[in-house]
Design brief:
Elements lengths: L1 H14 L9 H5 L5 E3 L3 E2 L5 E2 L3 E3 L15 H13 L15 H13 L10 H6 L1 E3 L5 E3 L3
Antiparallel strand pairs: 1-4, 2-3, 5-6
Length: 142
């Protein structure tokens, strides 16, 4: 069994499919966000809020990490800049989850006492403030 596991790991490394960072149980069980959805979601105090969240097929419990690109990343970056006092630099909300986005997410995770890996996921979703489509920023608990 050990030889088989070693062979598989070597094959993944050679193919470029190996994950280079730690895999948390949530990250292993959550798909990558592939879109966004405007809700309505529940705010932490229970009232409904229309806000754009990154989603995987309308499910907000998904992950984003360095190397991801697209509208889901851009929605996250807009929330980071508008409601979480993040400076995205000259590129702004460009839809690319690069080192700046990763470091901002890592800082927010550390500041809120949650697992700090720089990967956006369900725990990070709950500590971020999200811009409501009608104005204001809210912590959401979908």
């Amino acid at each position: 069994m050990r030889i088989l596991r070693t062979t598989i790991c070597v094959a993944l490394l050679l193919s470029g499919l190996a994950v280079t960072g730690p895999i948390t149980p949530v990250a292993a069980a959550s798909p990558n966000c592939n879109s966004f959805n405007g809700g309505p979601w529940r705010a932490s105090d229970g009232h409904p809020v229309d806000a754009n969240l990154p989603t995987f097929n309308r499910n907000p419990f998904c992950i984003l990490g360095q190397g991801n690109t697209g509208k889901a990343v851009q929605v996250l970056q807009i929330a980071l800049a508008r409601c979480n006092n993040a400076d995205l630099g000259s590129s702004g909300a460009d839809g690319i989850y690069g080192p700046i986005t990763r470091n901002i997410v890592l800082f927010i995770q550390t500041a809120n006492g949650i697992s700090a890996d720089g990967v956006y996921g369900p725990q990070t979703l709950r500590v971020l403030r999200w811009p409501a489509n009608t104005g204001g920023c809210w912590r959401l608990n979908p």
